[in-house]
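Run log, item B.
One chain of 201 residues. Sequence copied directly from the ordering sheet:
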Amino acid sequence: MLRTTQPSPAQLAGNLEAVMTLVRVLARPLIAGSFVLSGVERLRNAGTTAPQLKPVLAGATKVVPSLGAVTDNEKLVGQVLGATQVGAALLLGIGRFSRLSALLLTITATVNTMVDYRAADAKTPEDKKARRSQLLKNLSLVGAVLLAAVDTNGRPGVAWRAGHLASGARKNVAGVRKDARKQLKKADKAVRKTASDVVGS
């Protein structure tokens, strides 16, 4: 009878990390591909999509009035959105600056989702159904890039590192305090012994 050995927890963790790395290598280009095509389309048709951007930019200007100088040129904003989307998607696809590029894609995808939703026809029930379906697809892509934005590639994130550093500092302070008490007790014993020797002689 053959004996099988159970893998150790370290082996299991290593296998899981290898699988997650493979998933990242495959998933990032799949997510990025859609954004590259969409960004290129926005760049090519910046003039025709500019009127669609106008209501969204007007809403943004109402919320943040200082954006007025930037949002006055809808065609330029469309080109910037398209170029940002292409650049960030390419970086995400090759795994460079993936968290930053995913964050940029989240912003551009949110703007594009609002623009597409407002611009879509909703006269017939079929049009409404198609608009709703497109909205859900766009929101799914926003969710995918949000996940990519918080992915730490298996390394500890900043929050974990800060908590771990604080915990280590607390342990060090407790250790120093304990050592100081021991040293004080030793010094106290030495002083008492020396005092009793002086008094006794």
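Observations after the first pass:
- The radius of gyration is 30 Å.
- The mean pLDDT is 81.
Flagged for discussion on Thursday.
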